[in-house]
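Below is a filled-in request sheet from our internal design queue. Each sheet records the structural input a requester submitted and the sequence that came back. We keep these sheets so that new team members can see what a complete request looks like end to end.

REQUESTER: design group, bay 2
PRIORITY: normal
MODE: inverse folding
CHAIN LENGTH: 94
BACKBONE (tokenized):
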């Protein structure tokens, strides 16, 4: 008999905008914020979503563009206080 809790958990993991992990990179300067984002994405499975908190200015301009150049998908960018939350879906780029 299957457990309903396990069913809900697997459904939750398959939702496209639900982050599997989050990085708080406020206060981290370029290019280190991109490097940390890239390294985290490399540990994730195809289709998983990473939430990244970035400062305004260079970080929010550069990190989303750089991860897209790496073949990943930026799902959204939203302002949170004086920072931005960026949702990035891990893509297979082999």
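RETURNED SEQUENCE:
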């Amino acid at each position: 008999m299957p457990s309903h809790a396990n069913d809900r958990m697997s459904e939750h993991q398959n939702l496209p905008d639900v982050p599997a992990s989050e990085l708080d990179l406020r206060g981290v300067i370029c290019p280190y914020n991109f490097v940390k984002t890239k390294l985290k994405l490399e540990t994730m499975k195809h289709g998983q979503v990473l939430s990244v908190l970035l400062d305004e200015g260079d970080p929010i301009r550069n990190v989303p563009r750089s991860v897209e150049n790496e073949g990943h998908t930026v799902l959204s960018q939203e302002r949170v206080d004086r920072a931005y939350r960026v949702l990035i879906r891990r893509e297979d780029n082999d």
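SHEET NOTES:
- The longest strand covers residues 73-80.
- Residues 1-13 have pLDDT under 50 and may be disordered.
FILED BY: M.R.
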